[in-house]
Amino acid sequence: MFPGVADWELLRGAAIHLERPVLFATVGGAALLLALRSVLLGPHRLGVAGGVRRRRTARLPDPWWILSSALRWGALTLFGVALAGPVGLVRETPMGGEGVDLVIALDASGSMNALDATLKGRRVTRLDLAKRVVAEFVRSRQGDRIGLVVFGESAFTQCPLTVDRRLVLDSIERVQVGLAGDATALGEAIGLAVRRLQSASEAQDTRRVLLLLTDGRHNAGPLAPETAAEIARLSRIRIHAVGIGTTGSVPFARSGPGEPLRFEQVDLDEETLHALARITGGRFFHARRPEDLGAIATAIDRLEARPQPVEAHYRRVSLVPNALLAAFVLLLLESVATHGLLRRLP
Q: Which of 5-14, 303-312, 337-346 is most confident?
């Protein structure tokens, strides 16, 4: 099986070694001797196409014969590499360690489509900005297990707790406004995040944190946010609540091309978010301006100090299929050069 694109990104700085180096040395030595023999004999002694035409008119070897020979011996060398069993060691973050179990609950309700945020001088929705800041926050966390819960009128697990930050980042990128409905079920979001954290680890000393990002007021679902926060407190889960955006009349993104920009009234329930953080020993932040979100992410990063670096684990990736593929490509090129170009060119 060929390594994936993500594996190749990690293999750039990884160690690559041969499982059977003696076999490679044997095959490589034989290939070198055969290559020297062919060079000494020349194309006219080996019966290579293209060499016969020019053996009486050229003192130097035919350049097409040199190309054909290089491709042939390159393919033989790659076959030797494949026989020797090339293996790449891909560095991975260990599953264990002293990291934090962190679930990000991201609001994707209809109000997150408000256009009161800017990113690099361009007006974007609240969700687009939140996704960018959350992604940068995830990249900064080393050794943590991170999960993603998306909520609106209901809540669902977009990504389970994992140390694979690439998976978390891909899950964040796929979040869209209205994915879970247009309303805001804060209680359901907290309850689901608590269940994910509880099921991830039963160890009492595990640090569990819920990062809640929303721009609205609880208006859906049977579970009250305060009740869900009490459940989180009993499970030793700390909630950091982040309120996004301003209140009052704000512009909203157009639902289709050619439609006019519309304005709607939005409301942020700061009192409830304050209470959620206070009940669980966390903190409440209000991001009124786009630059506030970055500062808040930095503050939370400091509150939940990252663990000391732990010993890395390595995953073995076989490179045999890649070596064989490269060898067959060289043989194909050699065949084209020998039986195609050499017979057509004067």
A: 303-312
> Sheet containing 15-18: which strands, arranged edge to edge?
15-18, 86-92, 313-318
pLDDT tens per residue, range 84-130: 788 777 666 544 445 789 999 999 998 898 887 777 778 888 899 88
Contacts of 47 (CB under 8 A, 6+ apart): none
Largest CA distance in the chain: 96
Distance from C-alpha of 210 to C-alpha of 307, rounded to nearest angstrom: 17
What is the mean pLDDT of the segment spanning 260-268? 79
Query: Cα dihedral angle (209, 214, 220, 226), rounded to 10 degrees?
Result: 40
Domain ranges for the chain, please list them.
5-91+314-344, 101-303
Fold annotation for 101-303: Rossmann fold (3.40.50)
Compute the chain's Rg from CA coordinates.
Answer: 31
pLDDT value for 167: 94
CB atoms within 10 A of CB 271: 10
At residue 302, what are phi and psi to the nearest 5 degrees? -75, -40
| List of residues 6+ apart from 53 with CB closer than 8 A | none
